[in-house]
Amino acid sequence: xxxxxxxxxxxxxxxxxxxxxxxxxxxxxxxxxxxxxxxxxxxxxxxxxxxxxxxxxxxxxxxxxxxxxxxxxxxxxxxxxxxxxxxxxxxxxxxxxxxxxxxxxxxxxxxxxxxxxxxxxxxxxxxxxxxxxxxxxxxxxxxxxxxxxxxxxxxxxxxxxxxxxxxx
Amino acid sequence: xxxxxxxxxxxxxxxxxxxxxxxxxxxxxxxxxxxxxxxxxxxxxxxxxxxxxxxxxxxxxxxxxxxxxxxxxxxxxxxxxxxxxxxxxxxxxxxxxxxxxxxxxxxxxxxxxxxxxxxxxxxxxxxxxxxxxxxxxxxxxxxxxxxxxxxxxxxxxxxxxxxxxxxx
DNA sequence: AAATATTTTCAATAAATTTTGAAAATTCAA
DNA sequence: TTGAATTTTCAAAATTTATTGAAAATATTT
Lengths: 168, 168
What we know:
Two copies of one chain form a homodimer. Chain A is mainly alpha-helical.
């Protein structure tokens, strides 16, 4: 297989993969393209390589920057802006985990805490099942929250860092 | 807060939550409804509670069954079919992990293994970055795969099971 | 076997999401 | 300050995905 064919396949399947994770196809494809580009590239290059419009590139690169996965790079002497992606997959993963935790898990746990305080007869099986389910999810979510925190903070902690290096 | 209000909130936000995880809104809502229903319920009850069509209920319950999260229950003397969801959140999670691993992670790792075998000059920085990126993702994914396997198999293994019980 | 209840299918429709592209805003150089 | 290059915005269009509902299929009862 030649590089160009392999690139196309990688970008395409990374895009499809992204859609299963609540990320839109194009955003994932731009990310893929940046991941395999040795040097920073411009909006125009992204447009050309992926055959998408300028507006589309602009919105999705901004979104990727918001996720902390991509950064703008200013190259001295160049008028255009360049984009570059974090290449260390461990960092990419912890960054995604951190963001999703903040955007999804934390608000969900907050809501569940509210819902658990429902008024009603605990002997009513409907009330009981509701409270049990909510409590169960909350407890589980709380644990997941802690585990993810450990992962995210691993790089800032020497002991954990050394431990987790086995997995890198 | 009253039970009905809390139920509505739970179902609604569980649905929204699901969309971030590649699950469609209605499927997640049906799942939520079943999670808080003490007894198995029929298609008609789901239709009524969520105000959705029969066809929609039918397709999404089938999908939930395919994910191993819901089962058909036959109640003696009843003509209609009833549906019931697994309530143990640990089991629900491992089941979802198992399915997603099978549907997404495994095929991705397989593809990456292919892409790593690209032909080309390793001194070309484009080739090098491509191979490095693919190898990095593959290595990371392989580790994730192992970790997830451990989680999924925990219930079948006494030592691990006891260990993980702390998290339940 | 016929009548009835229930479930399933799927083409048509509706809704949600993504993408475009051109105008507006911004940045930079002369 | 002007003009050219570049980026950003966002309403409209295109695309994708989800939902409906009625007809077909299946299952159950009499």
